[in-house]
Amino acid sequence: MFWRKNFLIIAIIGAMILGVVIGAVINKSVTANTYKIDRTSVDAKAHTPESKAVLLQALDKLDAANLKAAKKTIASRFSILSDIFLLLIKMIIAPLVLAVLVVGVAKVGDFKSVGRIGGKTIIYFTFATLLALSLGLVIVNVFKPGEVMHLERPAAGTETGIKKTKQDAKNFVSHVIPDSLIRAMSENEILPIVVFALFFGVAAASIGKQGEPIIRAFDSLSHVMLKITNYVMKFAPLGVFGAITAVVIQQGLDVLGGYVYLIGCFFGGLLFFVFVILFTICTVLRIPFLKLFAHIKEPVLLAFSTASSESAMPKTIDALEKFGISNRIVSFVLPLGYSFNLDGSIMYMTFATVFIAQSYGIHMSMGDQISMMLILLLTSKGMAGIPRASLVIIAGMLDMFKIPGEGLLLLFAVDQILDMGRSATNVVGNAVASAVVAKWEGEKF
């Protein structure tokens, strides 16, 4: 019974362990067997010790580039599995969000009811965002992971691959209001879909019996999409295996060596946020946190292993309804949470910005840090509509406070690992948000 009930979790954990083992073996094998350029002719070509050193250094760089390319090629064969799984998940997201939110809003009813629940939701999201931003600053200032790292500054002008984007009012609006629902769905932009669904759901409810057939149709669509989700989740262990194996092949187990303190500080902060802050919020409101966490353990593990909050969203909806939260609350709060309440990602933005400043020996005053926190309180909203959202906004913060943008490279080696923690925390944070709003609406679990 235990094995059957927890089969997906056991399979995912097994896939993670297998991925680490196979990835490490392949990494070691490729490192040992990748062709190295012959050095025997160096003595003949080099006329001085200095020129010989230059030639050897150039050959070392070529060997390193060849090794990196070889690892990337092999890793890409495994990452196909994770690509397939994530594409299947992305296939589900847009129609599922549209269906469940239209039904949720229609069940809520008129603008007054929607406004009441929406107001409570935004109040909680703002409160949680302030807590996450503040905790990120406390952790990075107390433990100072940047100072411990003593990292070498990347060469000036090195490309990070991240475009610095200032999230001003115009840019924010363009990510919120859809110019085309079809385009928003094709690009999986959740926030524009949410805006359309809010209008559509209220309109469908307001016309009474004439709107009932289309509401029933969307209700049927949401059930069909959840059934498809169950089918797709059977591929989760394969997707996890591919993702973990590909990362370990390219970076090896040694990637944890120099960054273990950074990872420890950040993951410690995430655990504190989940099991102290969110636990306290639930305790004050008499929400059984441990019971809630037991219901969402599968989507949390899925988000952690794939480093994708999106992959866990369909399963989270199902888990929260089984926990006892009504469909009208889950289908309203959860989609909004994926744009407005990404607690792990929000905490990372203050943590990472100050970490990079510390690594360069740049002092950020408490005034600067508070200013940054207040700016991020606004600019983090709607961030899910931006590709690689956290890194894009961090790049904007670095530019604003005159911190070298190349500092993002310092995080790239372990960003995949950090993203696993961020994604899992995002899932827990949105689950708690749904429970809090349900409690405020008088629901009993």
What does the model show?
With 445 residues, the chain is mainly α. 78% of the residues lie in helices and 0% in strands. The chain has one domain (2-440): Proton glutamate symport protein. The chain is globular. The two termini are 25 Å apart. Mean pLDDT is 82; it is low at 158-162.
CATH C-level: Mainly Alpha
* Termini separation: 25 Å
Instruction: Let me know the CATH homologous superfamily.
Output: Sodium:dicarboxylate symporter
Provide the β-strand percentage band: under 5%
Helix content, binned percent: over 70%
SSE class: mainly alpha
Q: Give me the number of helical elements.
A: 20
Please outline the major beta sheet: none
Structure summary, number of beta strands: 0
Low-confidence stretches: 158-162
Characterize the overall form.
globular
Q: What's the order of the H and E elements?
A: HHHHHHHHHHHHHHHHHHHH
CATH topology: Proton glutamate symport protein
Radius of gyration: 24 Å
What's the rounded overall pLDDT mean? 82
Total number of domains: 1
CATH architecture: Orthogonal Bundle
